[in-house]
Structures are given as structure tokens and as C-alpha cells.
Amino acid sequence: MRYEAAVGKLRGCGYKATPQRLAVLSAILAGRHQGLEEIRARCPEVGMVTVYRTLDLFTGLGLVRRLDLGHGPRYELAEDHHHHLVCEDCGSIKEFERCPVDLRSLPRVGGDFEVRAHSLEVYGRCSDCR
Asked: Are 84 and 95 within 8 A, CB to CB?
């Protein structure tokens, strides 16, 4: 999901595309796995409370994915399916796309549960920290 699609979804859900929301969206698009401080640094004209509320709104609408990978929450645009390798020492995050989860077997485990999405984080030590 790119900028125009995210703005369209925001408006389609009945929310205004305010300058503050657009600034936070642009900040999120500038990098992956960003912490709050990185996002705030990219849109200093937006107040801290507004950034928090906007991130909560975007997460609730499915525009942004909140990642709790240690070292505080991280945010990224929810545009593609990928997973994360997280270094427990330095906090670096690398992505991998080949998914080891067989989603066809999950519904049988949960009974009448409908699977919409999933995430997978693998923790360890990167080559720099070993």
C-alpha cells in the first residue's frame, strides 16, 4: 500500500486526511521498522499526542503495522507479507519473505476461527553481535 492508497483508505473509512495525519503517513513511508522517536523526528511540526493518536488510528484501520520486537514499538506500512529476524543484542531487524507457516492447517487448529493474517518474529543474534 502506497501513499495514495493509504490516503484513499483513510478517507474511505470516514476520516479526514489532515495535514498532521499526512505528515505522519509520510514519515512512516520514509523507512521501515521505525520507533516513535524516528517518526517524530521526521514530522517535528506534529505534536507528540497527535503522533500517538494517528499511529493508533492507522494501526486500527490496518494502514500501519505495529511491531513489538523489543526495544519499544516499531511501525511500518502494512503493505506486504513478510516476517522479521530480530537481534536480541543490538535490536537490528531484517526481513524475510519465505513464510514457513502453512495457513491451510491453522483453521483446523482453531475450530471455526477464520484466519485473516499472521506475523512471525524470530529472535536471536545477528552476525555483528556474535
From this structure: yes
